[in-house]
Amino acid sequence: MEGEENASLGNMFSSATKERNVRFMFANFKVRTKLIILTAVAAISMCAIGVLNMDGMDRSYEQSVSSMKQVLYDDYDTQIKGQVENVITLIEEEYEAFQNGVCTEEEAKEAAANLVRGLRYGESGYFWIDTYEGDNVVLLGEEVEGTNRLDTKDSSGYEMVKDIIQNGRQADGGYTEYYYPKEGGTESFPKRAYSKAFEPWQWVIGTGNYVDELDAQAIENNKDVKQIFQRTRKLAAGSIAIAIVLLMVIALLIVTDIAKSLKAAAKQLNLMAAGDYTKDYMERFINRKDDFGDLARCIRDMKTALGRLISHVQLESETISSAAGSVNVCVAKLNDDIAGVSAATQQLSAGMEETAATTTMANEAAGEVHTAVQHIASRSQDGAQGAAEIKGRADETNHRIRRARAKAAQLKNEIQQDLETSLEDAKVIDQIYELSGVIMNVVSQTNLLSLNASIEAARAGEAGKGFAVVAGEIGALAEQSRQTVIKIQEVTQEVTQAVESLSANARKLLNFVIQDVAADYDGFLKIGEQYDQDSTSVDTLMQEFSSIAQELFGNMEGIKDSMSDISKAAEEGAQGTTEIAQRASVIAQESKEVLEQVTKTKQSAEALREEIGKFQVDDME
After folding, report:
1. Where is the HAMP domain (predicted)?
2. Which of 24, 366, 392, 483 has a Cα at 20 to 30 A from 375?
3. What angle do CA 609, 614, 619 make, to 5 degrees?
């Protein structure tokens, strides 16, 4: 495993080395050489593409001829297969005649053979018949009929008859290809046959023809296509040749232009490297719109910027030299000022110590005031909390009153709605009363009908006695129904009176809820709201008192902190002034070092001015 990893790393390093070598090789080429290589590669690529396109055209032509051959062969196969199937249909008719007893089997076979022997299609199409054993039954009436030709071979030694019989015995028949001379000739040509068996007589019927003409026809049909391909090849070759010539000419012009432009740029940069900024070899390229125009403008801008920089450095070097002399004078004066500052800081330190002692005493007094204010603020917060609790109880009371009033209003609405629904339902009693009236009418009609029936029964004599009995029963039943309806009407009147009484009482109860109960709830709510307003006033007062106490407490906190800060600042100020005095001594020492550095800077500015003087630049504003 380790060996494989080492080998893999070795291959990777080798590949990286080769890539670096290739890059290094191309990096050393001049631009002219690189462009020539690029042009040559483009020309070779165009030639390769042209060759590939021509080869593709040849392949397309061959595929076209092959497709045409396939179409012709498919049509030919369909034709000869249909001819054989037609012949089998004719043989089946003779076989049916034998089956129906019209003739003997031998007579039927002979009739079928004679029929097939005389059949033709196209210019030279004919049929033959062989048995499964290879005995020929029909073949243009030649001498071979009646003989066994199972071992017959074509010009290449292929036993064609065996395969014709074998392929014909397949379920859908089969095709056989072989070579055979044409009539009157000795040269063999390709021939394709189709054969299919007729099982009842174990015959294999076949037909076929020469297919060399199909190949010639396919080529002839694609003659126009071939001419188009040939013209296209010539046109493509000419186009590629013209394109390569144009590519060479354009590449030569581009290479020449690039070489001249790069040469001018190199000459300009070499002059600038030598310190000469007075000449400009890129001026003729300034107005160009290509990359060399951009390069010329960039070199011009760089030349101008560097010239200005050099001029500016010359001026600044003189300024620095002059400033160095001024700094020497200032540093000497600074040393005198530092000595005065050191004495003043010592006096300031003593004053700071006295201030620190005074602020310590004031800080203790502020602490006592701070404690008293804190106690006042605590008591005011307790009062505010009590007022808040009172307000909470007032809010809860108002909430309960509103909820009870809403519940009473809801109950009133429900009672009113239920009462109206009940009164509406009670109207069904009126319907019962009306129905009882209808029933009374029916009873009257029934009595009348019973009377008529009795009269008719009396007229009928003995024959109508039974009918008279039924009429009597109907009359009795009608009388009972009338009495029942009278009782229903009496009960209905009593129910109606009870419902009216109940409705009146319910309306009194509803008026009581609307007038008295609702008025009481409104009074309770006003009292609760006044209670809430009073608690709010007390709470506001306590909150203001607490706020003032808190503000006073905060101010005392600030005063206490300020006094502490003043005391601390005084102590720190005393320490700071002492440190200032110490640092003043250090600054005095460092100012001497600064003076030495300024002297060195002046010397460096003189040396820089001498170096800048070597550059030649145009006068710039």
Report:
1. 256-311
2. 392
3. 85
Residue 434, H or E segment? helix 428-460
pLDDT above 70 covers a percentage of the chain that reads 64
Condensed to tens digits (0 to 9), the pLDDT of residues 526-578 reads: 766 776 776 677 667 667 756 766 776 676 677 667 667 766 766 776 677 67
Q: Of all helices (H) and strands (E), which one includes residue 208?
A: strand 203-210
Residue 485 CB coordination number (10 Å):
19
Cβ-based neighbour number of residue 496 at 10 Å: 16
Q: Is 247 exposed, middle or buried (0-12, 13-18, 19+ CB in 10 A)?
A: middle
- Looking at residue 577, its pLDDT comes to 63
- Joined tokens for residue 384: 């505010």
The angle, 0 to 180 degrees and rounded to 10, between the axes of the packed helices 465-512 and 291-426 is 120
Q: Could you tell me the pLDDT band of residue 129, with boundaries at 50, 70 and 90?
A: very high
Q: How high is the mean pLDDT of the chain?
A: 75
Distance CA 264, CA 286 (A): 12
Rounded average pLDDT over 382-396: 71
- Residue 428: band (very low, low, confident or very high) from pLDDT cuts 50, 70, 90: low
Per the CB < 8 A criterion, the answer to whether 162 and 150 are in contact is yes
Angle between helices 291-426 and 518-612 in degrees, nearest 10 = 180
CB atoms < 10 A from the CB of 554, how many? 12
Write out the H or E segment, with its range, that includes residue 529. helix 518-612
Q: What's the pLDDT score for residue 165?
A: 95
pLDDT of residue 9: 47
Strand-strand pairing, 136-139 and 203-210: unpaired
Q: Within a 10 A sphere around the Cβ of 195, how many other Cβ atoms? A: 29
Residues in a beta bridge with 174? 195
Q: Each residue of 579-607: b (16+ CB within 10 Å) or e? A: ebbebbeebbeebeeebeebeeebeebee
Question: Tell me, what amino acid is at 219?
Answer: I
CA distance 279 to 522: 108
Of 141, 162, 165, 139, which is closest to residue 152 (Cα–Cα)? 162
Q: Would you give the DSSP letter of residue 182?
A: P
- Tokens describing residue 318: 């003189």
- DSSP strands (E only) in 65-198: 127-131, 136-139, 174-181, 188-198
Tell me: pLDDT of 106 over 50: yes
pLDDT tens-place string over residues 439-492: 778 767 877 777 787 787 777 777 766 767 777 777 787 777 778 878 777 777
pLDDT digits (tens, 9 = 90+) for 273-328: 776 767 776 777 777 877 877 877 787 777 677 777 777 776 776 677 676 667 66
Structural domains for the chain: 58-233 (3.30.450.20)
Burial class (CB in 10 A: 0-12, 13-18, 19+), 261: buried
Residue listed under structure tokens 């070899």? 281
Around 225, how many Cα atoms within 13 Å sit in the side-chain half-sphere? 17
- Tell me how far apart the alpha carbons of residues 418 and 132 are, in angstroms, rounded to a whole number: 108
What is the arithmetic mean of pLDDT over 376-381?
66
Residues 6+ apart with CB under 8 A from 534: 394
Other CB atoms within 10 A of residue 272 CB:
17
b/e string for 403-423 if b means 16 or more Cβ within 10 A?
A: eebeebeeebeeeeeebeeee
